[in-house]
Design goal:
This protein has 202 residues and is α+β, with helices and mostly antiparallel strands. It contains seven helices and four strands, in the order ααβααβαβαβα.
């Protein structure tokens, strides 16, 4: 299942077009070791400044203590559906390089690793839902994250379940048409606000 998209300017790869962030996960589904390692390997090979690889992930599988501690740090609205996902992964960025100097922007590099994991999820027939709705201090305490590492996001991964299993408010959001801001309002050239022109413009 995939949600309807608003009109695309041009076609993009099916892995990108088919990626979306559901809330209705199959609470009986489990992810085996091979699939899990494939997801983690996709994140591991993300690009980073100077190959510094500032990302770290805390990986919880439904039913284990890591999963429960990550779940406990989520905001209640996210807890209401994320507890049916197969995995919960907390992405954490190192603020310092190995030599003790600050990373320029470790959050950018870590986000690339999460993005690759999300696309790999789609390739495996799974879905990933990234969340910023969590308590970073509670997560750090629950998982003994060092002070020089910053929690950035939590991602739920699992198999899709029917939207009608969700409460009405979430069900409406689950089945809404996916939309994005128009190209002309997002990509500029020349100066700020001037839309990029291509040969396909009318």
């Amino acid at each position: 299942m995939s949600l309807p998209l608003t009109e695309q300017a041009v076609s993009v790869h099916p892995l990108l077009a088919g990626r979306w962030s559901p809330r209705s996960f199959d609470a009986t589904h489990t992810i085996g070791d091979e699939e899990l390692l494939t997801l983690l390997e996709a994140a591991r090979w993300a690009p980073s400044a100077g190959n510094s690889q500032p990302w770290r992930f805390l990986v919880g599988r439904r039913g284990d203590s890591t999963y429960q501690r990550i779940l406990g740090a989520l905001r209640p609205g996210n807890q209401s559906w994320a507890d049916r996902s197969s995995l919960l992964l907390a992405a954490v960025a190192a603020e310092l390089r190995e030599d003790g100097t600050p990373h320029h922007d470790p959050s950018y590099d870590t986000a690339l690793a999460v993005a690759q994991l999300a696309v790999q999820s789609t390739a495996l027939g799974l879905h990933a839902h990234q969340m910023g709705g969590f308590d970073p201090a509670a997560l750090s305490t629950a998982l003994n994250i060092p002070d020089d590492y910053r929690p950035l996001s939590v991602t739920a991964v699992g198999a899709l379940a029917p939207a009608d299993l969700l409460p009405e408010e979430l069900r409406v959001r689950e089945t809404a048409t996916r939309e994005r801001r128009p190209l002309a309002e997002t990509f500029f050239a020349g100066s700020w606000g001037d839309p990029l022109r291509t040969g396909q413009d009318g």
